[in-house]
Amino acid sequence: MSMILYHTPASPFGRKVVVMLHETDLIEQVEVEIVQQTPLNPNRDVLDTNPAGKIPALRLADGTCLHDSRVILDYLDTLHARTPLIPRQGPERWRRLTLASLCDAMMEAAVQIRYESFMRPPGMQWKLWLDNQQEKIARALDYFEREAIAELEGEFDVASLGMACLLGYLDFRIPTWAWRSDCPRIAAWYARTGERPSLQATRP
Ligand code: BEZ
């Protein structure tokens, strides 16, 4: 194994990287080290790889450290001979990266909801802030539902990978949110796409 990925299966950002490793057949080249940590209790190996203490973080054979998930995906996409998951150039590259970035923004909001709801003592939770995070996700999902569904339905790539990991995280950590009733087209897409072996193998 020439690379070490620091990861926890609950993280949607880490999941993006592991899905990419499956999709590109690179999974055998990476040692996936599962770490237990929270923002209040960072892991020593992760801190040595990413001073911010955040996962996923990837240590290469020569000791080079890569983070965050966007940088790692970009790097891994240079290591395989299949169709790139991030278009190499042209308007398509910037469009797909922008859609992927919107999925990351939804993931960040969902993780914030999780931390605010489960790590902060109940008396200190800020409902308005929680509602704003949820509205951010709802707005972005609505954008995909109305304006970008055809793009999701194309090739499975960095944008659709991000959306699948976001939806998996919503179902995992905010199971009471019936997002499918507001977004039936995304729901239909996810019902099909979620069958991909890479997503089945990495369910949180
Ligand atoms: C979670 O447990 O939901 C989680 C863990 C690590 C990163 C992000 C989320």
From TrEMBL:
Domain called GST N-terminal: residue spans: 1-84
GO MF annotation: an example: transferase activity
Pfam family name, one: GST_N_3
Upper taxonomic lineage: Bacteria, Pseudomonadati, Pseudomonadota, Gammaproteobacteria, Pseudomonadales
InterPro entries per UniProt: Glutathione-S-Trfase_C_sf (IPR036282), Glutathione_S-Trfase_N (IPR004045), GST_Omega/HSP26 (IPR050983), Thioredoxin-like_sf (IPR036249)
Highest rank taxon of the organism: Bacteria
Gene Ontology cellular-component annotations: cytoplasm
Protein name (Swiss-Prot/TrEMBL): Glutathione S-transferase
Keywords: Transferase
SUPFAM superfamilies recorded: GST C-terminal domain-like, Thioredoxin-like
